[in-house]
Amino acid sequence: DSDEDAAAAEIDDEEEHSVRRPRAVVQKFMCERKAVGDGFALRRSIGRPELQSLDPFISLDEFEFSRPAGFSDHPHRGFENVTYMLEGGLSYHDFSGHKGTINTGDVQWMTAGRGVVHAEMPGGEGVQRGLNLWLNLSSTDKMVAPRYQELRSRDVPTAEKDGASIKVIAGEALGARSPIQTRTPAMWLDVTMRPGARLRQPVPAGWSACAYVIDGEASFGQPGDEAAGAHHCVVFGGDGDGVDVRSEGAGTRFLLLAARPHGEAVALDGPFVMNTSEEVQQAREDYLNRRNGFEMAAGWTSGQ
After folding, report:
1. Is-cis flag, bond preceding 56, omega within 30?
2. Is the distance from CB of 167 to CB of 158 less than 8 angstroms?
3. Measuring CA to CA, which of 14, 103, 206, 251 is 20 to 30 A from 90?
4. Is 76 among the annotated ligand-binding positions?
5. Residue 74 annotated as binding site
6. Annotated binding residue at 17?
7. Which residues of 263-274 are buried (b: 16+ CB within 10 A; e: fewer)?
8. CA-to-CA dists, residue 113 to 17, 78, 137, 148, 250, angstroms
9. Residue 93 marked ligand-binding
10. What is 25-297's CATH topology?
């Protein structure tokens, strides 16, 4: 809770003086669509050769899937798994009995902590499309109890100013604050801007930050910088107090992500994100032996 209060205070401080020193763009690249099996494709921005991670972000994917694709029963430990639906739905079921479907505009913020086993499947007919983020947990939070937070589209706080409309999935913007409580102080904004609009969004000092363009195009950083089009990832440098965005052409919709880095070693192997290879091996053994957070996996199946 103290971390959450501190993060809110950081954002409040930034909001008070707005953006005086916009962060520069240090990296920009196109995220190509890649098919992975039958019925599943993704555009990966974080977690690829050009950007293997952006502490504390482990991966960020724009995904699309349709039957027969899906993710049958599988484990997680050590991070927060966030799914935000852009079109269609995603159905889920975990070993504690938590199940349901999130639909267009809904978000599920799952803290895997010490252990979750779940299945994720298309929530309807046709193509389902969304964004999935893996947000690392600090070493002190790796083994916390799992937690789900779900926010329906109608309940997502929204703010508007000067041609920009912001859905606040996590953190705060333009005075609107999300009810989502993150273990790692973070900001997740879904921003839509009319043609020619401008947004100067504060980002706390020291936080990692990037943008992912969903539709349209926008200029980030300094005036005169080349615009980034749909499916581009834009990474901001650490020097500055916020980001300066100008909508180009017919307007734009983009995701703005920012979070306080941990500055810790990361050991990533499949569904486990820990600090050392020994901890990853321990997670694998705990899952196989149904212990230390995976006890409920014994005899359980989602049926998917």
Report:
1. yes
2. yes
3. 251
4. yes
5. yes
6. no
7. eeebbbeebbbb
8. 36, 5, 8, 11, 42
9. no
10. Jelly Rolls (2.60.120)
Please give the pLDDT value at position 6: 54
Q: Are 281 and 267 in contact (CB under 8 A)?
A: no
Cα-trace Rg, the chain: 19
Single out the residue of 85, 77, 112 nearest to residue 285, CA to CA.
77
Mean pLDDT over the full length of the chain = 93
At 67, the amino acid letter reads R
Q: How far apart are CA 25 and CA 276, in angstroms?
A: 32
Local confidence band at 1 (pLDDT 50, 70, 90 cut-offs): low
- Residue 278 sits at φ, ψ, to 5 deg, of -65, -40
Each residue's pLDDT tens digit, 281-298: 999 999 999 999 999 999
Q: Is residue 10 predicted with pLDDT exceeding 60?
A: no
- In eight-state DSSP terms, residue 9 is H
Amino acid type, 147: R
> Has residue 12 got a pLDDT over 80?
no
Which residue stretches of the chain are H helix?
2-17, 277-289
Q: Which residues contact 257 (CB under 8 A, 6 or more apart)?
A: 57, 60, 133, 186, 187, 188, 189, 209, 210, 211, 212
CB 81 within 8 A of CB 113: no
As given in the structure block, the two tokens for residue 160 are 């508007």
Quick one: tokens of 292? 């230390």
The string of pLDDT tens digits covering residues 82-92 is 999 999 999 99
**68: Cβ–Cβ under 8 A, 6 or more apart, which residues?**
38, 39
Q: Tell me: the pLDDT tens digits for 19-63? A: 889 999 999 999 999 999 899 999 999 999 999 999 999 999 999
* Amino acid found at 291: R
